[in-house]
Amino acid sequence: MAIDGLFLGGILNVTDPIIGFQLYKWSWLMLLIFAGVIWLAFRYGQWEQYRPLWGMYYAFKAKSKAAFIFNRRMHAELVSEASAKCIFDYKSWFKESGPVKYDFENNVFEPVTPWPGPLAKVQAFIWYYPCAFLDIDPLMGALYKFGGTNHDVDIAKKMQNYEWDDAHSVTSGGILIDIILDADNWSVPTSPQHRTLERLAERWNESNPTDQIHAYPKLQRYFTDGKLAVPAGIKFCETVPWPRMDAGCPVDVEDNAMDGARRQEEAEEEEKQAAPFEKYYFPMLMCGLGLALLIILLKFALKFAH
């Protein structure tokens, strides 16, 4: 009977004399460390510098819109439409429940038929909460879950019978962008104002299941129309002084254009200064890992030499 030879003569099965790990285990460990270093280099060397545009990225993934949220000082932040408009964090509704489906006629959650045998655990693991509201295949839902795709806007639209307030005024990168003034921290999940409005919307939805409120613009409209009383400590109207308005959204954009040109020149100069490091940091990283591997191999060679 023929016996296949060991891979590379079995050198990967050699045990190191210090810790007692076989070489193939060290190889797996080095690969994991290498993957972690590459992720950190990408995350903090590349991805972080695009933080102001993350709202557009998440909007693109969710096939929704983005939004510029202005505070009372007219300082703007680009966020996803879900962060700008959705009152509820739907994921928090399912902390302890398994796969369920929302019955829109009776306004209750019904358990989903479990998969047979041990597949029930797989079903619970891959289940993604938007599947409770939307017609999403569970396997596709698993892709959305592990891909970090957010469907809260689609959920809120469906819960509001697709009554949705749009205020888009510009398109950037193919993404529609709304302009929203949040002068009282409504959209900040940890603010007292948000928690107050969330409880108010919950009580309204329980009493009006066919006319639910899931978005800040609709809630503000109901305040304006007098359908809802404004809770104590909540502002639904804010007067912004014209100087701040002109600073945030100037009519004369010539000065801003010049500021942008100067900023671009400074950014190009900074990139030029950083270019040598950015050019060589990856080869240096590879050389460092290669040197570490060489040292380990030399340890094994010295062991067999003696």
Describe it for me?
This protein has 306 residues and is α+β, with helices and mostly antiparallel strands. The protein folds into two domains: 35 residues; 193 residues, no CATH class. The chain has a four-stranded mixed beta sheet with strand order 2-1-6-5. Strand 5 and strand 6 form a beta hairpin.
How do the helices and strands line up, and which of them pair or pack?
Layout: H1 23-45, H2 54-62, E1 66-70, E2 76-80, H3 81-85, E3 100-103, E4 108-111, H4 119-126, H5 138-147, H6 152-159, E5 168-172, E6 175-181, H7 192-207, H8 216-225, H9 242-248, H10 254-305
> Residue ranges: pLDDT <50 for 5 or more in a row?
none
Termini separation comes to 36 Å
Binned, the helix content reads 40-55%
Note the beta-strand portion. Answer: 5-15%
Class based on secondary structure composition and strand pairing = alpha+beta
Shape: flat
Q: Strand-and-helix sequence, N→C?
A: HHEEHEEHHHEEHHHH
Largest sheet composition: 4 strands, mixed
- Biggest sheet, spatial arrangement of strands: 2-1-6-5
Continuous helix count: 10
Radius of gyration: 28 Å
Tally of structural domains: 2
Task: Kindly report the average pLDDT value.
Answer: 81
How many β strands by DSSP? 6
Concise structural overview:
This protein has 306 residues and is an alpha+beta fold. Helix content is 48%, strand content 10%. A four-stranded mixed beta sheet has the order 2-1-6-5. It has a two-stranded antiparallel ribbon with strand order 3-4.
Short key terms for the protein model shown above:
alpha+beta, 10 helices, flat, 306 residues, 4-stranded mixed sheet, single chain
